[in-house]
Write a structure and sequence with these properties.
Radius of gyration: 19 Å
CATH architecture of the largest domain: 3-Layer(aba) Sandwich
Strand content: 15-25%
Order of helices and strands: EHEHEHHEHEHHEHHEHEHEHHE
Number of strands: 10
Number of helices: 13
Length: 294
């Protein structure tokens, strides 16, 4: 199985999948390959001029994944990539389309809002994901009133979290973004549900709860959709057939992964899946993973 992201947030999905596969018994052996689809050392997908360009470049990464691994499933563990995945050739022509985190996350949040009928949802995500509006449209299509949805863009927060997910800089930025989100609903004191719609944000999970408490909203549910993506895949492969599954994990990237980032995330990943942490430490840098003209 392949997991891909435009950075390292999706490693949390790969770790969760690897840990749960071990006890799933759905096969004797399984391999989880995490493929960083970032295409340039200095550019991100959100820096590109339009979705057509993003789709073209992501298609090159998806073709490389198919060619290199021939996976039984591809999990797009990135909200930004998920938003424009439907524009890719892979989405239109692949015999097995990829599973994206946006539908899994929307379903998770919609269920929470149905259970808490008076709650307002605050969606935290990258500027590109907020601007695309895919989560909002999908929630409205499920019957959630639009005035119950607040979108809060968090510029460059994923980079801060990668370098120190529980540190003072991340705490300061998360506190500021929570305050900005609450300022969009002045005077309202009703219940809230927060949704972390960037796969990086879950690494800083305790800081979100802390920020809501400091802002006067203690106990606000903070939903991390990342584990829901593994749910989708594991449910598809059906019942347990073996006592255990032997799982191997690989991490490959076209762009270098800085030592401090690997160190900061490694400890968090190790608590979930030691093989994933080990694979991150010994990752494969493959400059020829895929080729694109930006």
């Amino acid at each position: 199985m392949a997991v891909t992201d435009s950075g390292l947030g999706g490693l949390s999905v790969a770790a969760d999948l690897a840990a749960r596969l071990t006890t799933s018994g759905i096969s004797r052996r399984a391999r989880v390959a995490f493929v960083n689809a970032l295409f340039d050392d200095a550019l991100w997908y959100n820096d590109l001029p339009d979705d057509a360009t993003r789709a073209r470049i992501f298609d090159a990464a998806l073709e490389a994944i198919e060619r290199r691994y021939r996976p039984d499933a591809i999990l797009i563990a990135c909200n930004t990539l998920s938003v424009f995945y439907p524009l890719t050739k892979h989405a239109r022509e692949a015999s097995r389309p990829a599973d994206s985190i946006v539908p899994a996350g929307v379903e998770f949040l919609a269920r929470a809002l149905t259970e808490h009928a008076q709650a307002t949802a605050i969606l935290f995500a990258t500027p590109g994901t907020i601007a695309a509006g895919a989560h909002r449209r999908a929630l409205v299509a499920r019957g959630i009133a639009e005035d119950r949805i607040v979108g809060q863009a968090c510029p460059r927060l994923s980079t801060v979290i990668e370098h120190d997910p529980r540190g003072p800089h991340a705490r300061e930025r998360i506190g500021a973004f929570v305050a900005a989100a609450l300022a969009q609903r002045p005077g309202q004191r009703g219940p809230l549900v927060a949704s972390l719609n960037c796969t990086h944000y879950g690494y800083a999970g305790p800081l979100w709860a802390e920020a809501f408490g400091a802002a006067g909203f203690p106990g606000t549910p903070v939903l991390d959709p990342n584990p829901r993506l593994a749910d989708v895949v594991l449910e598809r492969f059906g019942p347990r057939r073996f006592a255990a599954t032997e799982v191997a994990v690989e991490v490959v990237s076209k762009t270098p992964l800085p030592d401090d980032v690997r160190a900061s995330l490694g400890g968090l990943l190790n608590a979930v899946s030691p093989p994933t942490a080990t694979a991150l430490h010994a990752y494969t840098l493959d400059r020829d993973l895929f080729h694109v003209a930006v």
